[in-house]
Amino acid sequence: MAFPDFPFDKQLPSFIKHQDVLQYLEKYATHFNLLQHIKFETQVIKVQPIHCPKEQSPTGQDQKWEVTSAPVLDSKKSVTEEYDAVIVCNGHYAVPLIPKVPGLETFSGEIIHSHTYRAPEDFKNQTVLCLGAAASGQDISIDLSSEAKMVYLCHNKSLIQSPLPPNVQQKPGIQSVSGSTVTLNNGEEISADCLLFCTGYHFRFPFLTESCHLHIEEERLTPLYKHLIHTEFPTLSFIGICKTICPFPQFHVQILLVLAALDGSFQLPSKEEMDADTEADYQKRLSEGLPKRHAHTMGNRQWAYNDEIARLAGCELIQKSVKNLYDAVHETRVKNLVGYKRVNYEMVNECSYSEAC
Question: What domains does the chain contain, in order, with CATH numbers?
């Protein structure tokens, strides 16, 4: 998970807590002297393209960007500045996606999203129905089992093959809700104290004006070349749009490609060529049966994608050991969802890893 140029503390276990990730990023910023360039407690309110003569633009583009920001605690003190490029890195785990379920508004218990889940103690002796069995749904269900009376993991995927705690049962997805009763897709009815939606997030960029021409339809963002660079405004880019990835290594090669495009060391194709490349990627996903909402989901695709981005950027490829370890942990997780985090690993060289003692 680490950036290639800054490893995690070797004293940490392989599966770390969010506090450790925060500390890692703080150390990264200090090590590379980045804090002096960061405005904290500042909200970006508006971003819009403005045109200027090419000879006045260091990037050679005929546009700049007007960015309006303000202190979080005093939005009246806004300032508007001009920039040559904008790189959007606001993530996509802030706006919960809760699907429409008939009768959901009648539910008599608590409705929450995984975004606000914190501790299993909050659900002591309750019957909890978790909707969604991707990473969050699986992890939270296991976590809840220590305190909840019963956990129903509801999803429409193939059954999880790993042994689960005795009070965690897999069930089909939700059909409807009435009071405290939840009807599943197979007609079975369950009385629940809490509905916990582990159903992902929406992409949201409230600071981008309509003139930025970013379109979001069923969680697909267009027009983005390589899930990264706006094809109409090449000085507008988006880091970290892809889902189901090993994040920091991918962010590393993505930003290097963006910088290469900005300084001219990488010549972007024409808008028409970039749009065609984007459409080809999307159509390939559709032909494989993926819905539109998975237009930016990577999974096994991430490794070929990362290598392609690195080659275009002219930088080193991500070490093979990262892929090998990622794949091995995924395989272990499938077989042992409850205990896979108890194992620690260490990198041996750029191609291999080993289990740490």
Answer: 39-92+203-298 (3.50.50.60), 95-201 (3.50.50.60), 322-355 (no CATH)
